[in-house]
Structures are given as C-alpha cells and as structure tokens.
Amino acid sequence: MNYLFPASYAWGNFSILAVGIWAVVQRDSLDAIMMFLTGLLLTVLTDIIHVCVFYPSNDYLTDVKRFSIGMAIFSLLLKPASCYFVYQMYRERGGEYTFNIGLTCAGQDRSTYEPIDQQDASPQWPDPSKAAPHPY
Question: What is the Cα–Cα distance from 36 to 66, expressed in whole angstroms?
C-alpha cells in the first residue's frame, strides 16, 4: 500500500496522543500537561512540514489521498484551539507561565526589595527612659 505521509507523521501524532492521555489521567501533574502542550506545539510545526513536503502533484492525486490530506489539514487547523484549551488546563492546575523576554524594562524592579542583611534601627525592647502614659 502506498502511504501519503511517512511513518514519522503517525508516530509523532500518536505519541502526543499518548502523552495527552497521560496528562488527563494525572490530574495533579504539571509536567504531564506541559509536555503535552509542548508536544502539540511541536506537532504543529512538523505537520506543516509534512504537508508541504509530501503533497503530491495533481497527476497522482486520487480521492483517498485528497481525503487524507484534507483530514491532515483539518487536524492542523484544530491544533491551535487544542493548544489553547491545554494551556487553560495548565493554568487551572496551578501552572504559571508568563512569557517575558525582558524588553519592557531594562533593569530589575527593586521597589519591593528589602535587604535581609541589614537590621532596622528600631530596638527590640522599649526605651526605659520614656514613661508610658497612664491608662486613666
């Protein structure tokens, strides 16, 4: 049988499917969901490469190959939505990933920085020279 895509296409997508099942079963694991999200993003890139490289010319395009390519493109179009939902699952499980390349500020924000090596000037015990006011 003459296959349209090589075995690497099937192996890549089925292995990400297995990681996705693992991520759904392991509800407390952030690593599983992050691996699934990374794998989905990687398969978007490899699916684009597979479709571009292995797309047959019109002379060899049968109905089965046309349907196969259509389903591959449909899967490729659904993967960004899948990535969005997987990212929402990642955030629900407590993951916090902020994409920061450092272009917004050149230095570190030190407005809330408190040095721990210097003690404050406030004494630990009250000053005995100051008399406390009488409560009545």
Answer: 29
Question: ∠ CA(21), CA(22), CA(27), 5° rounding?
Answer: 105
| Segment (H or E) for 132 | none
Report d(CA 17, CA 77) in Å as an integer: 16
Could you tell me if 30 and 90 are in contact, meaning their C-beta atoms sit under 8 angstroms apart?
yes
pTM of the model: 0.64
CB atoms near residue 47 (< 10 Å) = 19
Q: Where are the alpha helices (DSSP H) in 26-135?
A: 30-54, 63-92
Whether 81 shows a pLDDT value over 90: the answer reads: yes
Rounded Cα distance between 11 and 33, Å, is 19
